[in-house]
Each structure stands twice: as structure tokens, then as C-alpha cells.
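User: Hey, quick favor. My workstation is busy. Could you predict this chain's structure for me?
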Amino acid sequence: MVTCPACGKENDESAYECKRCRAPLREEPAGDSLGGVCRRCEAYNEPGVSVCTNCGLPLAAESGEEAATDKTPPEAFTPPSQVPDTLSEELRALAISDEEAAEAGLTLPKKGPTQDKTPPEPFAIPGARAAAAAAAVPAPASAGRRPPPAPPPPGPAETRTVQPLIPLPAQKPCGNCGALNPPAAKFCFDCGTPFVKKATPAPPPSIQVDTALGAEVFEDATMESSPVLASQEAEEEAAPPPAEPVEDVAVPAESVAEPIPEEEPPPFAARLVQESGPTQGTEFALAHLENSIGGSAAHIGFGDDAYVAPHAATLAFVDERLVLRDEGSANGVYVKVRDPVALQPGDLFVAGERLLRFDGPVEVPQVTPTDPPFLGAPRPQGTVLRVTEVLAGARTGRTCHRSGPSISIGRAGCDMNFPSDPLLASRHAEVRVAEDGSVALADVADGGSGVFLRVRPQQPVELQAGDVLRVGHQQLRLEVG
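Assistant: No problem, here it is.
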């Protein structure tokens, strides 16, 4: 260990300066001095300084001349054994006195009573703190802190102003259970009954009109006018004359908005009368130039019939005539046959309760010779025509192949017999083949239910009074006039 010659602090063998006062511990050449330590205040000074920068004591006292002139007795040296060991003692030893501070030109704070830097209590009511401090019992002082002095009691002349506490708003009771709730509650916290706001009366009007003003008579501004200055008259003379006012002409609404053309009435009166069904005898007037037949939304609607399309057909007045047009629905519309009418391959017709289709001429396959041959009826010769029964769901029923001169349909004794059909006569209808190869459909029964031929799609048919139409299960008779 190396003992500092300036302050007596023990340092390590390898230390070059004291760790307390930073004085050099090893001798260095005179030309390479590290500075000096004042022997009075033990302050370190830079090399080349002759007077201590802290206390002003000359530092070159070791020379013979300065040693002779300096009469200040040397300070006693403190041996290393008496150096304080604790950090507090070391700091206390390093502290300077008031005299040393005065010599160095330092100003120390004046010692006085300890100031109470305790922040004021938040949310404290003014005036109530002093009363609470006077009434409180003083707690025992801790060992490390001096309790603040109690405030002196107020004299007889002193008056203390204590502000009253702000009263809280009264709680509102529930009208259902009687429980008290905060004033801002919108419903009862116990039973949940909502509080109904009281109706606020409407504020009075800010402007009041005196009833006497209604009877006051105002003078017309054109009766008297203020005098006009000469300059104003000159400006009015120089100004161009005002344009003549254009009179407002009332324009009728019909000329502004394009009028909606009214529908022309039918050229003659006509109506349809229902011949069968639960509403037998119901009349449907043809009040438009084009009258639709179909579902509930049509002019003539049969929404209860599942076999009628929303728009099955159209009855239109064209050039003083009434025509029927099939709109191409699945079941279509049929017209009762009066006279023999020409047939084309694919035409559908109704006889009784049977729906039949005329397929036109067909080829019969040739007989394949077998051993032995199959036994059967004689095969027709020449042109062979075929009529097919159409079942519900567009399935194929009976078929009939004949070469002519006709194919008869009825209940008995015909080419196609349907004995279970109550609406068929014994001989009801015929498909006739002429010599030129043309085919026609004829009603050969006297009265009865008749034969109905389907109107070809988009091929209008002219109607006459007394014609009967069939749409689904409905039969309608046309009456004119």
C-alpha cells in the first residue's frame, strides 16, 4: 500500500495518484510535473500555478526564499491510523468550514428552520383544514424526521371563516318499490322501473304581436313621395327607359305535359259467357281493343284452373272483326268445329274427353319373312295416316293407322272406340281423306259435346257470334251485340 503524503489516504502499489485528492504518489522529473496540492485546503492545482486557485496560498513554499518569507505554521499531519473509515466520516472530513468558505469566496445557504414542503391535500375545503389539524391528535414523531410545529391557537380578535359544505342533491324514490336512487338514474336499481321525464312546458313566444296593430291602417307608398334632388333627376333622364313588362300568359297543363292518349272503345259490343264449370253463366265483357285470356291477372282470368297459362290467348278487334290469337302456351286454346276444317300434321283436337293428335301420312315398315310367319290382321295398302291419343303428361296412348277414305272416332263401331267416354257419341268425329290427298276434320254427331280444334300459335282465327272456345276446363260462348 502507498500512503498519500497530502491527505494520508492509502492507495494501491500501482496507483500514480491518490484516489481521494488526486495528488501524485510518485516523484516525476522537474520538467514533467503533474501539478501540486495545496497544504492548507488540499486542493489540486494544475502544473505551473504558483498560487492555490481555491484558497490563494502560495504553492512554492519548499524553496529557501519562500520558506523564509512564509511564516505560516505548518498544519499537523494526520497519521494514516487516524483516517476515518466510514463514508459519512470521510465526507464530513472533506467538508469545509464557514471560515474556509469565506476565504474562498463561496456563499453557503443560511441555516434556518426546516420548511414544510408537504403538498396540500387534494379536494380539501378551505378553512376546514385548520379545524381538522387542531382537532386531530398529534402522532408520535418518527426518529428520523421532526414533526411540523402545531399552528398557534387563534386569538380572541381573530375570526375564522368556515365555508359550509355543499349539500348533495336529494335522491329520488322509485314509484314502484320506493327504493332511493341517485338523481341521474334513468331506471330503478332495485326493480328496474324506468323514471318518466316530466313534460317541460313550452317556453313563451319571444315575440308578441299586439292585437291593436291589426287595426292600424298603413298609408300607401305611392300617395306621397319625398322630394327628388336635381342630380337624381339628371340620372333618371340619362338612364334608358325600362323595358315593357311581359304579361304572364297562363299555359294550360295539357300543352306542357304530353297527354296520355285515351284508348279507343271497341267497334262493337261483345262478351263471353261461360257454359260449364262452377261459375256457369258468368259474362266477361270485351271492353278493350285487345283482351287477354289467362290467369288471375288477365282481363278474362281463370286463376283456379291449373291448366290455364297466365296469358294463354288474346281476343282483339281488327278492322271491324274479332280475331282469336293463341300466345303459344302449353295447353293453348281451342275453337269448336262447325264445318269440316283442314288438318295439318301435328294438329291437336278434342273429341269428348279425348285429346287426339293427327300425325299425317307415315310409312309402315315392311314385313320381315320368318319361318313360320306371325299371324295378324291384313296390312293397309297405299298411303297410311295415323291418329294418336295423347294422355296426361304428354304420354302416347292408342294409335290408329288407316289408308282411307276416313278414320272414325266414337264409342262403338268406329276405327278408334272409347266406350267409357260419356261425352262421345256412337260415331262422333271423322278424319276424312280427299282424292287429292288433303285431310279434313268433321263433326258427324248430332248435337253432343262437339269437336274442338286447337288454334295454331300466332295464326289468328276470325270468330263469329255463337262460336265456342275451350281454355283448360272452361268453355266460353261468344255473344255479339
